[in-house]
């Protein structure tokens, strides 16, 4: 499955470089056409790199949050992380009108991290955690943060400036103003390094303590990684919903819930999903372009309803591929050759 996803991603990446309003073709690039080379290096290649970083980053951030919160419907969207990052950007625009993109990123990092921590603090105090109750708390908290952001934007006449980050799109991604999104790469690598720790923490506080894993420290680290990934994407691209919610769930349906076993496939499928949505946005009403948030919103809503029905019916049970046993139970319950379960 991993090899198939990697091959599909490489093929789609190559195709996306030649999809757009301005004509860029392989013959022109190889012949040294200056105009096509400029378009390729200034716009098409940076856009592709931003798309890949966005897909990989948001998917991994969603996977981390779902594992740490022990709920498959938690994501940067339903965990108030995106709303908090937008709030930070607005604060940067208000207090530092001449701020650079990096200055706004710092504000977004701080507020996204604080917003995510507050959300987790809320859900830890819910005595009976229903599968739907946790994301509903996050959505309500995100709406509160979004309401405060909109109020300040209207009061100080910043709505037009804030609208750039309200709807995610890649049309303004050019060389020199997207490099912040590269921060997702070391953060994703860090997530892979601590994948086993996230998996253990996802099984509960008592279980973590029994295995000698510092629960609060790993929880703090994981949420910070997810928040920083989300903020770096929002600063460059804007708000894109559903990626961190849909992609990890689809991969988990086939490969189970063990985070180390699904992290690579989640990253690859997330990149493919964002790339396909972006290409659709460029093709549907060409030569005009639809924001990727619109395409992701349509497809994500349909997939979310399907996932909701599947989870409510089957819980965390994974789909069998061939004769292999997959799923949460298979991932965490080893079986000895005699047929008995190990303690």
TrEMBL record:
Its main location: membrane. GO terms for cellular component: plasma membrane. It is found in: Cell membrane. CDD domains: TM_ABC_iron-siderophores_like. Keywords: Cell membrane, Membrane, Transmembrane, Transmembrane helix, Transport. It holds the Pfam family FecCD. The chain crosses the membrane at residues 47-65, 77-96, 102-124, 131-152, 181-198, 218-251, 263-285, 291-310. One of its GO terms (molecular function) is transmembrane transporter activity. Signal peptide: none annotated. One of its GO terms (biological process) is siderophore-iron import into cell. InterPro entries: ABC_BtuC-like, ABC_transptr_permease_BtuC. It is a multi-pass membrane protein. It comes from the Bacteria. Belongs to the binding-protein-dependent transport system permease family. FecCD subfamily. This is Iron chelate uptake ABC transporter family permease subunit. It comes from Candidatus Limivivens intestinipullorum.
């Amino acid at each position: 499955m991993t090899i198939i996803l990697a091959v599909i991603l490489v093929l789609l990446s190559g195709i996306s470089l030649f999809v757009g309003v301005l004509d860029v073709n392989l013959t022109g690039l190889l012949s040294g056409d200056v105009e096509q080379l400029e378009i390729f290096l200034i716009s098409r290649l940076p856009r592709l790199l931003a798309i890949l970083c966005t897909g990989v980053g948001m998917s991994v951030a969603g996977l981390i949050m779902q594992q740490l919160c022990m709920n498959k419907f938690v994501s940067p969207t339903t965990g108030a992380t995106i709303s908090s990052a937008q709030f930070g950007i607005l604060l940067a625009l208000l207090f530092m009108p001449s701020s650079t993109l990096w200055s706004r990123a710092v504000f977004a990092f701080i507020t996204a991290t604080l917003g995510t921590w507050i959300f987790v603090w809320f859900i830890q105090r819910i005595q009976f955690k229903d599968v739907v109750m946790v994301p509903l708390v996050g959505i309500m908290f995100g709406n509160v943060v979004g309401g405060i952001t909109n109020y300040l934007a209207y009061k100080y006449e910043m709505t037009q400036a804030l609208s750039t980050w309200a709807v995610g799109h890649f049309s303004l991604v050019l060389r020199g103003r997207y490099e912040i999104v590269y921060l997702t790469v070391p953060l994703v690598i860090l997530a892979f390094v601590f994948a086993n720790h996230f998996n253990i923490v996802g099984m509960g506080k008592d279980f973590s303590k029994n295995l000698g894993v510092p629960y609060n420290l790993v929880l703090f680290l994981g949420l910070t990684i997810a928040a920083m990934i989300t903020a770096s994407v929002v600063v460059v691209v804007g708000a894109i919903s559903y990626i961190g919610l849909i992609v990890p769930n689809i991969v988990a349906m086939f490969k189970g819930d063990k985070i180390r076993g699904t992290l690579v496939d989640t990253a690859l499928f997330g990149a493919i999903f964002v790339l396909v949505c972006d290409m659709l946005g460029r093709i549907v009403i060409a030569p005009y372009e639809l924001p990727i948030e619109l395409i992701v919103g349509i497809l994500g809503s349909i997939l979310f309803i399907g996932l909701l029905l599947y989870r409510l019916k089957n819980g965390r049970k994974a789909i069998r591929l061939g004769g292999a046993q997959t799923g949460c139970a298979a991932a965490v319950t080893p079986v000895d050759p005699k047929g008995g379960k190990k303690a």
